[in-house]
Write a structure and sequence with these properties.
This protein is an alpha/beta fold. Helix content is about 35%, strand content about 20%. The N terminus is likely disordered.
């Protein structure tokens, strides 16, 4: 059983007393408390499950994997301090990223300064990759500005009589959520879908009544929300109070929280909500069957997206280390990733020279209490696509 620590292990030993020479120590800072705590918890569980399966298969380069986790409380300054301490005090061998672009933006700068590979499971903001960094890699399929691309292109290609005429865009003021909405609006506007509402809201927004009333009064037939988790839930609650039901509702991340989202909004209100997803527990991808089985055994429910993303980040790190055959030359690890692809639970991942990924997201939709993959059709888990809260599209 792998040990996951909330504080650094004692000097010279791991949590279970094993000599550090027999252990590969991986440092992580995650938002285990604060605004992004649900995503942080799910990511940690993905990391834990990857480490446990890796150790069962003989470890990394024949050594046991141990993950040292520090809580950054969804604070950028704390994330920076945590990674500095993991490197300088805990002397970790490798790093894995935090959860959210907000935290990974400053955290990745610490890794870059120390010339350490930084594989992040949640760093989709374009701002992550315009700094000329050499050690950062995003272990999902696409950047935030392309997250809604497959969904928006599908909407744009609908027959004119089925295509919505008007759209509303609401986004959290966040380096990830904003670009998702901007990318969708660009595609939908080019298809002739008129923007009738657009605004950003601060992270502490709890009541969306004024936003929803404005969207409803503007006659928006499709709503695209750049949401993280609670803001997506609260948006739906405000829509219920306003008796506002657009034909199509897309939320960037909230619906991918699985059972937490379903329980928060209710199955009827989740029905038909779209989201772009990096991960599906139903996918026939590398180690996914083993991941789902162990995760369900450990935590009692199907792995949500952030857990899958965390597991995939571990797979990417492992592939680079085993290909290079060492953890000592981290520039070589980065060079290997730039020139190769890795099979993960998310599918095949590959990267541009700046560490940004080359692929496309899946599009999922809640249907009858299950989050089904609906696009691309070649890998869909259902051939139905429905309106929000029921009815055929």
């Amino acid at each position: 059983m792998v040990g996951v620590l909330v504080a650094a292990a004692g000097v010279g030993c791991t949590a279970d007393g094993a000599d550090q020479a027999d252990t590969v120590r991986i440092g992580v800072s995650l938002p285990l408390t604060g605004e992004f705590s649900q995503g942080g918890l799910d990511t940690r569980r993905g990391y834990e499950t990857w480490a446990e399966l890796t150790n069962e298969a003989g470890g990394l380069l024949g050594k046991k994997v141990e993950i040292i986790v520090k809580d950054d409380a969804t604070q950028q300054e704390t994330a920076v301090s945590n990674y500095n301490n993991l490197i300088s005090q805990d002397k970790v061998d490798l790093l894995l990223g935090s959860q959210s672009s907000l935290l990974n933006l400053p955290a990745s700068a610490i890794a870059e300064k120390n010339k350490m590979l930084f594989v992040c499971p949640s760093c989709a903001s374009p701002d992550m990759f315009n700094r000329g960094f050499k050690y950062i890699f995003f272990s999902q399929q696409a950047m935030a500005n392309d997250q809604a691309k497959v969904f928006a292109e599908w909407i744009a290609a609908l027959p004119p009589e089925q295509r919505p005429k008007t759209a509303a865009y609401a986004s959290l003021d966040d380096p990830f959520a904003g670009p998702v909405v901007e990318g969708a609006e660009k595609i939908l506007s080019a298809a002739g879908i008129r923007t009738v509402y657009k605004d950003e809201y601060p992270a502490n927004t709890k009541n969306f009544d004024s936003v929803v009333n404005a969207m409803r009064d503007a006659g928006a037939e499709i709503v695209v929300q750049g949401s993280v988790f609670e803001d997506g839930v609260n948006m739906i609650r405000s829509m219920n109070r306003a008796n506002y039901q657009p034909a199509i509702l897309y939320q960037s991340s909230s619906p991918t929280y699985g059972r937490q989202y379903l329980d928060a909004v209710g199955q009827e209100n989740a029905e038909g909500v779209f989201a772009s997803a990096s991960y599906s527990p139903l996918a026939d991808t590398a180690q996914n069957k083993e991941f789902v089985e162990l995760f369900e055994q450990k935590f009692g429910h199907t792995p949500p997206e952030d857990a899958g993303d965390g597991f995939a980040a571990g797979q990417v790190l492992k592939a680079a280390v085993e290909a290079v055959g060492s953890i000592d030359d981290q520039a070589a690890l980065a060079d290997w990733l730039r020139n190769n692809s890795v099979e993960t639970v998310l599918g095949t991942l590959s990267w541009n020279a700046d560490g940004s990924p080359k692929g496309d997201f899946l599009v999922g939709q809640w249907q009858a209490g299950n989050f089904e993959v609906v696009l691309p059709t070649a890998i869909a888990t259902t051939d139905r696509i429905v309106r929000w809260r029921g009815g055929s599209l």
